[in-house]
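Dear support,

Our group has been running a series of protein-ligand predictions, and this particular one with adenosine-5'-diphosphate is the one our PI (initials K.S.) wants archived with full inputs and outputs. We had some confusion internally about which version of the output was final, so please treat the block below as the authoritative record. The input we submitted was:
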Amino acid sequence: MQRIGVLTSGGDSPGMNAAVMSVAKSARYYGLSLIGIKRGYNGTLCKSHNIEDDMVELDLDTILDIADQPGTYLRTARCLDFMRPEMRVHAANNIHEMGIEGIVVIGGDGSYHGAMELCELGVPCVGIPGTIDNDLAYTEMTLGYDTAVNSCVDDIRAIRATSRSHDRPAVVEVMGRHCGDIALKAAAGTGAEICIVPEVRWSVQDVADHLSRLVAGGNPRATVVVAEGAWDAMQPFAWQHFLRDQGVNVHDDDVFTTNVLAKVLKYKCHVEARGTILGYTQRGRTPSAYDSWFAFEAGNLAVNLLRNGIGNQVIGIKDGRVYYMPISEALAQKRDFNLQLYNMINTL
Ligand code: ADP
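Confirmed final output from the archive:
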């Protein structure tokens, strides 16, 4: 084997550059040349006027300079064209023409499906789970999750400081798509009193009752941490009707958001609840030591697998150690939500 490729795909996550750095270091060590494929699978389709905008020989010195930076030097994007079988054949031909004999794919479950398809077309791929969401069951942590949780903990602590000053509750929305793990760990890590996640059905009335009990018990500054995907698990509630009854101006096309939840709690619990959506700060932080360590070991293992002719695998963490398993088996695993921790947060 003489040449491999690396790409980052889907949403960015802290640690992607560190993983590319590790791949680059390992490739240099084993005497392999390394092609950086730009903007996820888009680069494999070679649609740009200049090939360097799609695939470029990676210079280790450049990568070393940015290894500790958040974001991804290779850029990332979704690629709808890649969902079409004939475009994937085109991509595989381009990859073969460039002399690339294996690819390290850094991305989430969608990117893993793309990697599996490329394997079927004769391009061995190894996946590294680059996503803050922690939504892949086969690994204890995805790359970027630890950094995202730490980012939330920093921000929620700051919000709790002003909540304390004003004796008013806060409702804080964190990311994670359909997975409540960021919310769960961020809530546990800050002593937040209420946590709402997509994995557990919940009702606004229960949250309001809980908050009212906290306030009556002497805690008017409680924090509600809500996962961005939690609205799907909310029991139906005629919130527009409720808010109009309180004299609030509500439009028919308004949607239920964190700020609306804060407003509903304000009237139900008679408190000055304030909503904050933490948003993309969670994706743009400098990778934690844990994520940088994982990226380092995962990048090296990925290159070693490809060198040894082992493709169609993904890398994860099990019992605190980096390991690998077939992509299809990894994707078939069901996530095990930590209900015990959820109950602990919401009942203590
Ligand atoms: P993530 O990798 O973070 O889950 P997406 O689900 O958006 O992000 O997937 C990233 C990219 O992976 C998509 O834009 C597409 O190019 C590719 N992809 C996703 N699903 C498939 C699939 N079933 N077959 C082939 N390619 C896919």
